[in-house]
Design brief:
This protein is mainly α. It has helices at residues 3-29, 36-50, 76-93, 130-158; strands spanning 103-110, 113-120. Helix content is 56%, strand content 10%. Strands 1-2 form a two-stranded antiparallel sheet. β1 (103-110) and β2 (113-120) form a beta hairpin. It is elongated and about 80 Å long.
Protein backbone atom coordinates (compact mmCIF):
# COMPACT_ATOMS: atom_id res chain seq x y z
CA UNK A 1 0.00 0.00 0.00
CA UNK A 2 1.36 3.42 -0.94
CA UNK A 3 1.38 6.49 1.32
CA UNK A 4 -1.40 8.01 -0.80
CA UNK A 5 -3.51 4.87 -0.44
CA UNK A 6 -2.87 4.71 3.30
CA UNK A 7 -3.84 8.39 3.67
CA UNK A 8 -7.07 7.68 1.82
CA UNK A 9 -7.76 4.62 3.98
CA UNK A 10 -7.30 6.67 7.16
CA UNK A 11 -9.67 9.31 5.82
CA UNK A 12 -12.34 6.73 4.92
CA UNK A 13 -11.97 5.13 8.35
CA UNK A 14 -12.56 8.58 9.83
CA UNK A 15 -15.76 8.97 7.83
CA UNK A 16 -16.89 5.52 8.95
CA UNK A 17 -16.17 6.37 12.58
CA UNK A 18 -18.16 9.61 12.39
CA UNK A 19 -21.02 7.77 10.70
CA UNK A 20 -21.06 5.16 13.49
CA UNK A 21 -21.17 7.95 16.08
CA UNK A 22 -23.98 9.69 14.17
CA UNK A 23 -26.00 6.48 13.86
CA UNK A 24 -25.71 5.67 17.57
CA UNK A 25 -26.75 9.19 18.56
CA UNK A 26 -29.71 9.14 16.17
CA UNK A 27 -30.82 5.78 17.56
CA UNK A 28 -30.70 7.25 21.07
CA UNK A 29 -33.23 9.90 19.99
CA UNK A 30 -35.90 7.20 19.94
CA UNK A 31 -35.29 6.13 23.52
CA UNK A 32 -38.05 7.37 25.80
CA UNK A 33 -36.68 6.07 29.09
CA UNK A 34 -32.89 5.94 28.93
CA UNK A 35 -31.12 3.27 30.97
CA UNK A 36 -27.48 2.58 31.76
CA UNK A 37 -26.90 0.97 28.37
CA UNK A 38 -27.96 4.21 26.69
CA UNK A 39 -25.41 6.20 28.69
CA UNK A 40 -22.76 3.70 27.59
CA UNK A 41 -23.86 4.03 23.96
CA UNK A 42 -23.67 7.82 24.17
CA UNK A 43 -20.17 7.68 25.62
CA UNK A 44 -19.10 5.20 22.95
CA UNK A 45 -20.48 7.52 20.25
CA UNK A 46 -18.29 10.32 21.61
CA UNK A 47 -15.26 8.01 21.48
CA UNK A 48 -16.14 7.07 17.89
CA UNK A 49 -16.33 10.77 17.06
CA UNK A 50 -12.86 11.37 18.48
CA UNK A 51 -11.09 8.46 16.74
CA UNK A 52 -10.15 10.23 13.48
CA UNK A 53 -8.61 13.13 15.41
CA UNK A 54 -6.40 10.95 17.61
CA UNK A 55 -3.09 9.39 16.57
CA UNK A 56 -3.35 6.46 14.17
CA UNK A 57 -0.21 4.61 13.08
CA UNK A 58 0.16 3.16 9.63
CA UNK A 59 2.89 1.40 7.69
CA UNK A 60 4.16 4.69 6.24
CA UNK A 61 3.45 7.03 9.14
CA UNK A 62 4.11 6.26 12.79
CA UNK A 63 4.68 8.05 16.07
CA UNK A 64 4.76 11.83 15.84
CA UNK A 65 4.17 11.61 12.11
CA UNK A 66 1.09 9.37 12.48
CA UNK A 67 -2.26 9.98 10.81
CA UNK A 68 -4.60 12.40 12.52
CA UNK A 69 -7.31 14.52 10.95
CA UNK A 70 -7.22 18.26 11.61
CA UNK A 71 -10.15 19.88 13.39
CA UNK A 72 -13.08 20.49 11.05
CA UNK A 73 -13.31 23.89 9.38
CA UNK A 74 -16.46 25.04 11.17
CA UNK A 75 -17.78 27.99 13.17
CA UNK A 76 -16.24 28.61 16.60
CA UNK A 77 -19.14 27.09 18.57
CA UNK A 78 -18.70 23.82 16.68
CA UNK A 79 -14.93 23.92 17.19
CA UNK A 80 -15.46 24.45 20.90
CA UNK A 81 -17.70 21.39 21.00
CA UNK A 82 -15.17 19.43 18.92
CA UNK A 83 -12.38 20.23 21.39
CA UNK A 84 -14.66 19.48 24.35
CA UNK A 85 -15.33 15.99 22.96
CA UNK A 86 -11.63 15.33 22.36
CA UNK A 87 -10.82 16.52 25.88
CA UNK A 88 -13.52 14.28 27.35
CA UNK A 89 -12.13 11.35 25.39
CA UNK A 90 -8.61 11.98 26.66
CA UNK A 91 -9.47 12.60 30.30
CA UNK A 92 -12.70 10.77 31.06
CA UNK A 93 -14.18 8.53 28.37
CA UNK A 94 -11.19 6.47 27.22
CA UNK A 95 -8.88 7.23 30.15
CA UNK A 96 -9.18 7.77 33.87
CA UNK A 97 -7.52 11.12 34.45
CA UNK A 98 -7.20 11.38 38.22
CA UNK A 99 -6.68 15.14 38.11
CA UNK A 100 -10.38 15.55 37.23
CA UNK A 101 -11.42 13.97 40.51
CA UNK A 102 -9.36 16.19 42.80
CA UNK A 103 -9.50 13.24 45.18
CA UNK A 104 -8.05 13.01 48.64
CA UNK A 105 -7.01 9.75 50.23
CA UNK A 106 -7.53 9.26 53.97
CA UNK A 107 -6.01 6.51 56.05
CA UNK A 108 -7.02 6.23 59.67
CA UNK A 109 -6.25 3.60 62.25
CA UNK A 110 -9.27 1.85 63.76
CA UNK A 111 -8.00 -0.42 66.44
CA UNK A 112 -5.44 -2.62 64.75
CA UNK A 113 -6.88 -2.18 61.27
CA UNK A 114 -6.16 0.73 58.94
CA UNK A 115 -9.24 2.12 57.21
CA UNK A 116 -8.78 3.74 53.83
CA UNK A 117 -11.22 6.25 52.40
CA UNK A 118 -11.37 8.39 49.30
CA UNK A 119 -13.08 11.75 49.06
CA UNK A 120 -13.60 13.22 45.61
CA UNK A 121 -14.56 16.85 45.43
CA UNK A 122 -15.55 16.68 41.75
CA UNK A 123 -18.23 14.67 40.03
CA UNK A 124 -17.88 13.32 36.52
CA UNK A 125 -17.72 16.03 33.86
CA UNK A 126 -20.96 16.80 32.07
CA UNK A 127 -21.35 15.41 28.58
CA UNK A 128 -22.34 17.57 25.60
CA UNK A 129 -25.85 17.84 24.25
CA UNK A 130 -26.69 14.94 21.94
CA UNK A 131 -28.35 17.11 19.29
CA UNK A 132 -25.39 19.49 19.21
CA UNK A 133 -23.04 16.54 18.60
CA UNK A 134 -25.30 15.21 15.83
CA UNK A 135 -25.24 18.63 14.20
CA UNK A 136 -21.44 18.81 14.52
CA UNK A 137 -21.07 15.39 12.91
CA UNK A 138 -23.42 16.21 10.03
CA UNK A 139 -21.61 19.45 9.21
CA UNK A 140 -18.24 17.73 9.47
CA UNK A 141 -19.30 14.86 7.22
CA UNK A 142 -20.61 17.31 4.61
CA UNK A 143 -17.08 18.71 4.33
CA UNK A 144 -15.44 15.30 4.49
CA UNK A 145 -17.45 13.92 1.58
CA UNK A 146 -16.16 16.76 -0.62
CA UNK A 147 -12.58 15.99 0.45
CA UNK A 148 -13.18 12.28 -0.13
CA UNK A 149 -13.94 13.01 -3.79
CA UNK A 150 -10.70 15.01 -4.09
CA UNK A 151 -8.70 12.18 -2.51
CA UNK A 152 -10.31 9.61 -4.83
CA UNK A 153 -9.45 11.77 -7.83
CA UNK A 154 -5.86 11.93 -6.57
CA UNK A 155 -5.81 8.13 -6.26
CA UNK A 156 -7.04 7.69 -9.83
CA UNK A 157 -4.30 10.03 -11.09
CA UNK A 158 -1.56 8.04 -9.35
CA UNK A 159 -2.66 4.70 -10.86
Amino acid sequence: MTTTEETYLHYIEGIDSLNRAWYILCELRAVEKPKAIHAAAFRFALIEYAKPYIRSDGKHRRGRNSYKLPAPNLAQDFLTLHHQILDLRDTFLAHNDLTLKEAKLFVIQHGTQPLVGVFSSNSDPSLPDREAVINLIERTLDQMYVEQERLEKNLRQTD
